[in-house]
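Is this the right way to post structure tokens for a design question? Let me know if I should format differently. Anyway, here goes:
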């Protein structure tokens, strides 16, 4: 496990979240990161969400570009495209709201 995976384990523990056996060896799997992002939208501030996106979702554009080399099924291309678009929009939204220190709740 790399630094990002170890950091995510620490974050999950700090939030009292348990990892299923299926993902114990890969806490930085995209499924786990998206599940955690969902959790943050329910319980965290915009600043915490922004930090997570910046620190742990920054590899999605690279994945999207690398995927193209393997001619994947259009479903996966579209899914990554939508995810990348969503994260970009969220970065923009959170940047604007960060200036006003707006919170989710």
């Amino acid at each position: 496990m790399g630094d990002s995976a170890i950091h995510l384990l620490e974050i999950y523990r700090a939030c009292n979240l348990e990892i299923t056996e299926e993902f114990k060896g890969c806490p930085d799997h995209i499924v786990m990161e998206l599940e955690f992002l969902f959790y943050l939208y329910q319980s965290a501030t915009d600043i915490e969400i922004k930090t997570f996106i910046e620190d742990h979702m920054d590899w999605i554009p690279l994945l999207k570009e690398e995927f193209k080399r393997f001619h994947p099924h259009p479903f996966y291309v579209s899914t990554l495209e939508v995810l990348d678009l969503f994260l970009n929009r969220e970065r923009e939204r959170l940047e604007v709201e960060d200036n006003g220190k707006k919170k989710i709740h």
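Format looks fine. Someone answered above. Worth noting: DSSP finds five helices and no strands in the chain. Residues 74-100 form the longest helix (27 residues).
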